[in-house]
Amino acid sequence: MKDSVEPYVTADGRTIGDRMMEMRNITLRFGGVVAIKDISFDIREGEIRAIIGPNGAGKSSMLNVISGFYHPQEGEVWFRGEKRPAMKPYQVAQQGVARTFQNIALFNGMSVLDNVMTGRLRQMKTGLWSQMIWKGPAEREEVENREAVEKIIDFLEIQAIRKTPVGRLPYGLKKRVELARALAAEPDLLLLDEPMAGMNVEEKEDMSRFILDVNDEFGTTIALIEHDMGVVMDLSDRVVVMDYGRKIGDGTPDEVRNNPDVIDAYLGVDHD
Fold first, then answer.
1. Of 235, 179, 225, which Cα lies nearest the Cα of 205?
2. How confident is the model over 204-241, as pLDDT tens digits?
3. How far apart are CA 93 and CA 100, in angstroms?
4. Hey, what domains does the chain have and what are their CATH numbers?
């Protein structure tokens, strides 16, 4: 049975929903190295949830646990009120979870359109034989998926480069194409691993606008890792803070901003 809770009201008065995902006492080890130690937090329907912390805090490891790349030695992952068994990444994707990567993972020799089309694989139902013949169901499916992708391309304002090989694009546009591919999967939960990394100010402003629009217009729940604290505080409904694999803060942007443990972790100072 789903663990229903009272809706959460953000600082700006926006109501977000029940728990979509819960990380319960997660511990992840690599040999003798503890990457994550006994961390619990939740992600609620419709929110933008940030995971922050200094380098080496375990943020990407946590995202990899959520997306099924890593399996914790201790703790439980709950999704929509049910305990999730150990799953492979493609099985997690089938549940409605998509992600982007800290290091861009696109097909450089393929066009923008073809890269974004790969995000539609979860929606493709026809078999290999039907696709070889192509006429009939496979053709209709191809047209429907192409229409969905074209809408995403328009939404992210990359129409002008839709036929350009990805390898020719500047870094900021590659990040946008990777976001488009993730959106093509029509995820319920979108995981963004440092979506602003390496961008200039203008590119960050554009990406921030698109993230807010995805959350607002599509209703997509978003969990993101980001080092730019200005971006985090502007975008996020709630923030969880990690340091050396431990959780040291969890709350609204204002609560986290004024948390002495968080200040210590980022500034390297101690409080009496």
1. 235
2. 999 999 999 999 999 999 999 988 888 899 999 999 99
3. 12
4. 1-96+188-272 (3.40.50.300), 112-186 (no CATH)
